[in-house]
## 1
Amino acid sequence: MSDASLPEGAIIITGAAGGMGRPAAIRFARRGQPLILCDVSAERLDALAEELRAGGAQVSTLAGDVAAPDFPAQVLELLGDQDIAAMIHTAGLSPTMADGERVFEVNYFATVRLVDAVAPRMASGGCAVLISSVSAYMIPQPEFAAAANAVVQGDRDAVAPFLQSPQSAYPLSKLAIIRLVAHEAKRFGTRGARIVSIAPGYMDTGMGRQEADANAQMRGLIERVPLGRMGQGDEIAAMAEFLCTPGASYVSGCDIRVDGGAVGELGL
């Protein structure tokens, strides 16, 4: 999609050394715009930055915990006086990586703080892409939907009953991301910018393989994917890149499933 221009400004990618963030960084580096790459792993982040700089990319890095209270301020400090042409926010935790409260803090509350920070700095024509999950479509219980809606409206206590287990906290955090994108579309729209989310299916990334190894039910669902395989990180990155281009200029406030047909196969 590199033939379709983005507005002037920097491109922020979180989780940049991960299974979806790394291919996104490689794709956006080809555009010749300044990159701000963030990841919790300083070693992997530095290696990626060195690789991209060798190809001529202008790269700034921020190694740190996306859930740290000062993380958004650190991102803005690196941004300086530049506008934001695009933000691809892939940083997050899956159920086997932490307890329920930590999963929700990283996946949702940290995202809210980052979105609040970048919204006033979005360029006209810019786009923020968040990562949800097909798991959000697999929890149809009304109480989950009510909790997701309430937390987006600022009621942190609404999700407390669901945080005892990472297996419930994770899909709820992703459902809340989908609701957040819908809620934030108007604020982004006042700047001529957009905000969307992508729901990856079962991904052949380090995180995805770790979850599949730990979850027999998930392995069974992978076998039912109509395309007959797990997804690749670059397939998410490709969609993120497209969503940031003028070709997607009327797409905002919604969730895009990139799941090989998995949700449809389940009739959800």
Note: Strands lie at 10-14, 35-39, 59-63, 84-89, 122-131, 194-200, 255-258.
## 2
Amino acid sequence: MDLNDYWQENRRFVTTVGAGAVVFLIAKVVLASNFEDDINAKNRVISQRISDLAQPMYSGADLEDARAENEALLAAVDTLNAVSDFAPRPEFQLDATMGSSSNQYLRALARVRDELIPRANRTNLQVDSQLGMPRLSPTRDAEIVRYLEALDVIDTVVGLAVDARVQRVDKIQIRLDPGLNSREGLGAVERTRVTFSLTGSSLALERLLTWTQRPRSGQRVLHIDDVEMVPARSREDEVRLDLTIVIARLTEPVEGEV
């Protein structure tokens, strides 16, 4: 078959293909003229990125700076741990040389009652002799440790209430961290909460709050978890203070790297 015969038989196909080729060439020329600069710029950026990736991203000085920053962060974490982690006074800590944990707990509770209740009575401060402690003494060492810490806080707050001339300590409630006895366990921070409901003049309660955050000589800052002060229902010149102190225990200390 010669070319003339092929043309006669496939004229429409050849024309279509030829038109398509022309359109393609025209489109290529138009796109190249409009976007060639952008394409070349992107190609240069890609080449630069490839070149950058072939070079080390960090120098020895960068590594030393990172180590110094990590050491500074670890020091800051240690400082925060020291401030946040509750440290009970020695008389509220278990001592392996002082007998069973249960007996040490009972002695500490009796000592606080014998000292604190008469002191409160001398200033007409009304406070429950149970001091919010459980009616049945705890038997597990883990619970005894935490109730002793709570007793330390109670001794401190009620002592401040005596000095501030608060009229009544209406309620004291201790709530151990739910994770202590759960299968899930404790999180990074264990929290024992001690809640007080106190009634007195606004001046006395404000003085008490101030002393918890700006302690006098030999005392500690107490970490407040919640606080609310409202007018008392019984008398117009009294207010009620609901104060929750949190005893924090860091269960997962940071070591090595931050």
Note: DSSP finds five helices and five strands in the chain.
## 3
Amino acid sequence: MPNITFRGHSYSLNPAESVLDALTRHGAAVPSSCRSGVCQTCTMKAVSGTPPAAAQEGLRDSLKEQGYFLACMCQPREDLEVALPDEIIAPLIDAQVIEKTELCPDVLRLRLEPAQSLLFRGGQFINLHHPDGAVRSYSIASASLGEDYLELHVRIIPGGKVSGWLAAKINTGDSVQIDGPHGDCYYQAPNLDQPLVLIGTGTGLAPLFAVVKDAFLQGHRGPIHLFHGGNKASDLYLVRQFQAYSEQHENFSYTACVMDESADSACYSIGSPAHVALAAHKDLKGYRIYLCGNPDMVRATKRKAFLAGASLSEIHTDPFEAATPAAPVIPATDQHADMPVMRTDKPANSFSPNIA
């Protein structure tokens, strides 16, 4: 029988056993959901060897050519060396800006079309490279299925090197360089009836937007509760989009939260989204939780969600951590340069991502 090599270890397959089942049987962690070739959560890449055609049904031709396959449907006839897509060290990719719009006064929506087909899961992040070498990361707000472009929500930081460059210099039709995708904060639901609670601040909404869309596309039946917050009403965006989702999907609810106590309480919940969400959901046993945005909020809410009954394995986080600036010290003339911010969930082989 063929052998599968994954992360430097070789595993044997039993007769009529799939790559997913074999790796799972041997204790290797591979993302999966439907196990029937529909959701594409278990997509892997053959680093060496050729996967059978039946394991590539439903994938785009360009991905088939690159050796991608569905692990749950793959019963190989030869030895394979395989890897997860976000564990592959990928070269820089050119991507064309196909849309640039304002979502709110300090947040831009960029849609990028990569020069080559890119396998991603909505909620992961890509690294975007400035011409002088600066690197910043942005979450992917696109759905994993049906949206071939990469949607990014870029907060414009005063004095920010990359965000300022994107806002002032980059226009529709221009090209930028990216790498990725990276990260594992994306829609996963072995149980389509499982209740979901999503909590985000600022542009932490981007990965949550993707999670919501993917949940709809995969037919999620359980309740989906989204809580998004900012200091004031003008910090929020996509409000009408989520209100429309609430009308279109009986299992979806959206709560807009602001810290401004003078805001209209008929339109907004007053307080942080974490406080409002936990007040509404005191028992989180059996829930899947997504926490994105402010790192203090993410850390504190993860602990509170666990104490409220959520399993740690069911809590997915995407915090932005401020990195310590490297020597030399920033000169006085650059006092307003943006501080690098990195995600703590980046894979070992990725760049140190940033958001400014």
Note: Residues 322-355 have pLDDT under 50 and may be disordered.
## 4
Amino acid sequence: MRNNDKFNELRERVDCAWVLQPLSTDLFERKFYQRKFCLVSRDQHDYYQRLLSIKDLDAVVGSHAAKHPDVRLVQGERDIDLSTYANASGAIDPLQLTKHFGNGATIVFQGLHRIVPALSHTCAVVGRHFASRVQANAYLTPAESQGFRPHWDTHDVFVLQVSGRKRWFIYDSPVCLPLRGQKCDPDVHKPGELLEEFELEAGSWLYLPRGVMHSAHSTDVTSLHITIGLLGFTWADFLTEFVAASALDRVTLREHLPIGFAGPNFSIEQRERLIREKLADLATNIDSQHVWKHFASEIVSDNRPLFNDLLQSRLGSPSLVLGSLVRRRSDVLVYSAPDANRYLLRFCGQEVSLPIEVREAADFISQNDDEFEVRALPDCLDAEGKLSLVRRLVVEGLLELC
């Protein structure tokens, strides 16, 4: 089977439910999401091997194109001198990197969703489900080694154990759902009481909400795991953006703080009265739709899939006819924004402007996950209009021929 055929087969099967099963996404969201860690064991040890292999990592390391910090080394309490495995510009020396690995260092591969098609697709479908920016890292740890000291992350992570196994330790944590700026300093923030200790075996997964302090240690075999990180927007992010946008339209929010507010004669009552007045002003005539659209556009722009067939599709595609089967690329997140005159489709960091008359057909395409014949588009378009729209969206990367 050709590599492209293998990827298409994987893409048909891998979605957010596939990543989390046998636990349902509904149960996960109700019981665990942003609440507590979740461990799901699976007897199928090769379950996640279709997402990443040592061969994939060898291709990254051995290409001589890898650079720090996209590839780096960590080893518990000891910092590994970057100059011992990279040159002055940060280019990784594959031989020196693997020597350190042989001596017990963990190799960290950051942002593999930008390189490995299967991880790109996985991040796209997970990001689409959780309405979040998503990244994929991988950690290759030798036997009987520890990569990081106890710490917490400032984003939620799904740990997918690809091969080997790791011993995990969950500690009482001092902060719940930290913001991006509330990073853990292992020299300052010490782990609290040990709450849980367990082994994560190949094919199993672990969810850690941001702020859960943890550490991991490989067992008697080399461990490879993927972390799918959810870099979501918080209500603090939303309200900050909302206030900043509102200040552009409201002069009262652009006024200086009152004269004397820092002095001893400015009472607590005065301060509280003024802030209540400003909040009441914000609460009147609330128009937050532009903020919702802003964050939606950020997610659409950041979650970009890898395209591994564009040249092939241009060179080898048959002529498009009404009976041609097409489908929306499942790993492309699309956001529609119709107005009075135009119908805008935003995806992959671009905006496609269409006549408002195609709205019904464009809605059909953006909301349909199944393959369909070109003729099945709504009849707001005639036959040539349907073909023209599909050709345009194939070129733009939203649709693909089946």
Note: The chain has three domains: 3-231, 235-287, 310-401.
